[in-house]
Amino acid sequence: MQIAILEDDEDQRDFLVTCLTRLENTVSDFASVAELQRAMQRQRFDLFVIDWRLPDVSGLSFVQQLRRQLGWEVPILMITATRSEGDVIEALQSGADDFLAKPVRPDELQARVQALGRRLDARRGQSSLELPPYRVDISRRAVSLAGQAVALTDREYALASLFIGHAGELFSRQELLQMIWGIRGDVTTRTVDTHVSRLRRKLEFDGRHGWRLRSVYQHGYRLEAGVQEV
């Protein structure tokens, strides 16, 4: 498996890498959310190990973002500082598949990751997203409209799969910048608007196929059911 470890403590990060490399995984480690998001633009990971406490973004918030961006395709193991029942519930409700409390024991970590790997194999039986007449082929990173493939750039594909997988959900421009481009903070840019405009045109998200990619004033975008305006 291709595993991404997100942990800001260098000693703990090295420990996790050592434990998981022994299972013949390919392990990449990151000290911040920004670093991991940049890597996600270049490569795909099969499993994430994420620490609760991070320097730039809450681990819980980032798990929620991953779920919105990737759906439930990729398992997430969260590392927590305590065994508090409330923390466990919060981690699972945020989208984590499993959790481990520090100090992490190597054997338990390896067992949990192997179990999540088996769950991943089962999940991969579902390799597409369907929102008729749209279909996202996850394995090929391709989108089709009424059975016809639509040529999209990597970022357009990421946006399309996000909107199609979360129809009806409102995304702010800042959320889209962070999830798709890995940019955080107050950034004045037309990048999101330009890409959404191109995506709307290419996928005909104007209501003619029953779905509109609507701009929500001063906030962001939402893919919602609707008919073409005349």
Strand-helix topology:
Blueprint: E1 2-6, H1 10-21, E2 26-30, H2 33-40, E3 47-51, H3 59-70, E4 76-80, H4 85-94, E5 98-101, H5 106-123, E6 128-131, E7 134-137, E8 142-145, E9 148-150, H6 154-165, E10 170-172, H7 173-181, H8 191-202, E11 211-216, E12 220-225
Parallel strand pairs: 1-2, 1-3, 3-4, 4-5
Antiparallel strand pairs: 6-7, 7-8, 8-9, 10-12, 11-12
Helix pairs in contact: 6-8
Give an overview of the whole structure.
This protein is an alpha/beta fold. The protein folds into two domains: 2-123, Response regulator (Rossmann fold), CATH 3.40.50; 128-225, Winged helix-like DNA-binding domain superfamily/Winged helix DNA-binding domain (Arc Repressor Mutant, subunit A). The chain is 40% helix and 23% strand. The chain is elongated and about 60 Å long.
List the domain count as a whole number: 2
CATH-assigned homologous superfamily of the largest domain: Response regulator
Give the strand line-up of the largest sheet. 2-1-3-4-5
Number of helical runs?
8
Order of helices and strands: EHEHEHEHEHEEEEHEHHEE
Give the second-level CATH assignment, the architecture of the largest domain.
3-Layer(aba) Sandwich
Mean pLDDT: 84
Tally of DSSP β-strands: 12
Biggest sheet features? 5 strands, parallel
Overall CATH class of the largest domain: Alpha Beta
Which percent bin holds the helix content?
40-55%
Radius of gyration (CA) equals 19 Å
End-to-end Cα distance, whole Å, is 50 Å
The best one-word shape is elongated
**Quaternary structure annotation:** single chain
CATH topology of the largest domain: Rossmann fold
- Unreliable spans are none
Structural class: alpha/beta
**Percent of sequence in beta strands:** 15-25%
